[in-house]
């Protein structure tokens, strides 16, 4: 099994994969914001939520649904900022995962990653990391 990466490149590939996996798991989990509502513990992320209020028309009151789920549609995400955050974070995670998997393939295939490809991949990874971090700053 030949490699087109140096020792530093192999370390970069594995760390890139771990970081991309952590970013993707964080993106898919609904535990970004934790709190309580109607005396129940609630949490939600950009497109998933746990324990959310719904209007019960038969009893004419608001009740808490104590389960996790995604929003029914993209427009059901509570605000335009959260919708933008969902798109930007998803794109960032996708870029990070693409570069990480390419780097891991470079560990197994010779002549796959040249110096130029490595620099471009690092730039894409930087951009993906910026997209994933931008949502954490309220952008």
Automatic annotation (TrEMBL):
<keyword id="KW-1133">Transmembrane helix</keyword>
<keyword id="KW-0732">Signal</keyword>
<dbReference type="InterPro" id="IPR019372">
    <property type="entry name" value="LHFPL"/>
</dbReference>
<feature type="transmembrane region" description="Helical">
    <location>
        <begin position="87"/>
        <end position="109"/>
    </location>
</feature>
<keyword id="KW-0472">Membrane</keyword>
<protein>
    <submittedName>
        <fullName>LHPL6 protein</fullName>
    </submittedName>
</protein>
<dbReference type="Pfam" id="PF10242">
    <property type="entry name" value="L_HMGIC_fpl"/>
</dbReference>
<feature type="signal peptide">
    <location>
        <begin position="1"/>
        <end position="21"/>
    </location>
</feature>
<dbReference type="GO" id="GO:0016020">
    <property type="term" value="C:membrane"/>
</dbReference>
<keyword id="KW-0812">Transmembrane</keyword>
């Amino acid at each position: 099994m030949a490699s087109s990466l140096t020792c530093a490149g192999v370390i970069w590939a594995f760390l890139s994969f771990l970081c991309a996996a952590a970013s993707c798991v964080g993106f898919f989990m609904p535990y970004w914001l934790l709190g309580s509502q109607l005396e129940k513990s609630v949490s939600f992320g950009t497109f998933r939520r746990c324990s959310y209020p719904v209007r019960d028309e038969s009893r004419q009151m608001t009740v808490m649904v104590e389960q996790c789920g995604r929003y029914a549609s993209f427009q059901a995400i509570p605000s335009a900022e959260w919708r933008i955050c969902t798109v930007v974070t998803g794109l960032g995670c996708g870029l990070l995962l693409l570069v990480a998997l390419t780097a891991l393939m470079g560990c197994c295939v010779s002549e796959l990653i040249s110096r130029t490809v490595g620099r471009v991949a690092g730039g894409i990874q930087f951009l993906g990391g910026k997209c994933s971090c931008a949502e954490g700053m309220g952008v």
